[in-house]
Amino acid sequence: MKLTVKEKVSYGLGAVGKDMVYMLSASYVLYYYQDICGVSAIAMGIILMAARVFDAFNDPVMGIVVAKTKTRWGKFRPWLLIGTISNAVVLYFMFAAPPALDGKGLVAYAAITYILWGITYTMMDIPYWSMIPAFTEGGREREGLSTLARTCAGVGSAIVTIITMQGVYLLGQGNERAGFQWFALIVAVLFILFIVCTCITIKEKSTADVDSPSIGQMFKALLQNDQAMAVVITIVLINCSIYITSNLVIYFFKYDFGGEGWHNAYTLFNMFGGAVQILSMMLFFPLLRKAFSAIRVFYISFAMAIIGYIILLVLAFTNMSNVALLFIPGFCIFAANGMLTVLTTVFLANTVDYGEWKNHRRDESVIFSMQTFVVKLASGVAALAASICLAVCNLSEDTSAAAETVEAAGASVVGLRMTMTVVPIAGLLAAVFLFRKKYILTEKKMEEITCHARK
What we know:
Strand content: under 5%
Number of helices: 15
Oligomer: single chain
Largest sheet: none
Radius of gyration: 21 Å
Shape: globular
Order of helices and strands: HHHHHHHHHHHHHHH
């Protein structure tokens, strides 16, 4: 039975709320604690990275818990709802650090809330994405729903990226610390409302009734699914590259592009980038898919991103007098990121069918727990790289002091620019090389697997 419009819209709405929360944490937690609260950049980098190492154990275990869950409401929706409510609460407290805390107390508070945020996000994210293979029939329907969900996720990310700094200034009346607290509360409430709508509307379709596997069996199945591992490593490399830039872009505008109205230029750039990313999912990707295979579009996206970074590097060292010039590399990078996000989800969903064909097990939750883990791992690695860059370049003063520092020591800005561009280029090149060498699930191969499953 095909998915109804109501089901598609409700599922997409959940993605909007989910990625509003994720983007707020991924893009602004380092800035909030390091630039506003005064925690050292290195300390924050270590916290973010340590939390992701912890998730190496937490995410697969959560995938197993979801796989073993059997309730009258299904195995996905209960965890989706529980994880959403708890994650929303933790998100608020993460951006509401008590003013009385400082030094080690503030570091401890940041560490505890961020680790709890990662745990609760996993509780929600794994069942959300695991539902795709469970209530789609594969092929175009699955690709269409993945595209819709990723597009809606892009909308959620874009909303937060575009309005956060303006919202923080407005809600806090110039006090960034208070502004982030109120903004996080609003995002948390919207997150709960959107996911509740998803849980009420989506009905899980029946899947093959298999015995619940042991932890050993699950890890064995994962290690035996070479295609899942290839896609997962590719996702890590892509996300590390993109997240390093997204973590540093606010510092780029504040300390390099500069000026009293830097946050207006930052908002304008993010507004443009968010619109391009959404259009890439809704318009550019479908148009390219009419002419090329999914794998060919994947390579085109890689080329666009690398070209964008090269242009950004050239502009950074030649002319940044007008923010509109940054729209040129921004278009390439944001458009490529949107299409890569959709395609990696489609490829990972395909590995579920491949794993069932190869290992005679359908491990949606475990495979998609890997996606959750690697996205957060990439976020942690990128945050650590960004924090090292900030510490080495000494970009932690207020705007006016930073402007004087930039004039006196151009090496600091050079380090920021190189970290934002050259490092991501290297990561993307490594990703495309690995994917080309290891991934074999072409459309023809997937048709063979689907035909075999129907027999």
